[in-house]
Amino acid sequence: MKKIVILPESLRFFSEEQHISLPEKLDEYPYFLYELTGEKTPWLKEQHGLPELLPIWERLVAAVKEKHRQRQKDVQEEMNALLALFFMALFWVNGSPAAPAVWKQREAELSIKPINFRERFQFIVAGPYTYAAFRQLVELMSELRKAAAVNAIRKR
pLDDT tens for residues 104-136? Predict the structure, then answer.
C-alpha cells in the first residue's frame, strides 16, 4: 500500500492536490520523491544528483522522440516527467530542493540557469505537449548541464 503524504505548495506544479501517494521513482507522479521523503538530499551533494537524473532523462527523451516520429500525440505523461526532472536539476544544481510551483518567484535566486531561462520556460509551459516545447526543454537541460559543469570547475 502506498503511503499518503501532504504535497507542499511549492511542489504543486502539476496538481492542486493536497494529499498524494508517495512516488516510488523519480519519474513517477507526483514526482519529487526526495523532496517529499527527506531521505536523500542530492542538492547538497557535489554533483547535485545529476548522475541519477540523467539516465532517466535520456530514456524519456528517447521515448518522446519516438512518439513524435510516429506522429503520436499522447506525450503528456512523458513530458510531465521531463518537466519534473528539469525542475529537480534546475533547483538541485543551485543547492536547494525543487520548488516548481514557485519557479517564477525563485528564479532570481538561481545563479545557475540557461540564458533567457524565464522567456524560454514560459514558452514551454504555455504549450508543454508540443514538439516545439519538447525541443526547447531538451535544449534548456543541455544548457543547464553545461552551466553546472562550468560552475563546478570554477569552484575548484
Answer: 999 999 999 999 999 999 999 999 999 999 999
- DSSP code, position 63: H
63 burial level (CB within 10 Å; 0-12, 13-18, 19+)? middle
Spans of the chain below 70 pLDDT: 1
Buried b / exposed e across 17-49, counting CB within 10 Å, b at 16+? eeebeebeebbeebbbbbbbeeeeebbeeeebb
**Model pTM score:** 0.95
> Is the Cβ–Cβ distance between 136 and 123 less than 8 Å?
yes
67 lies in which domain range? 42-155
Judge whether 34 lies within some domain. no
The number of distinct structural domains making up the chain is: 1
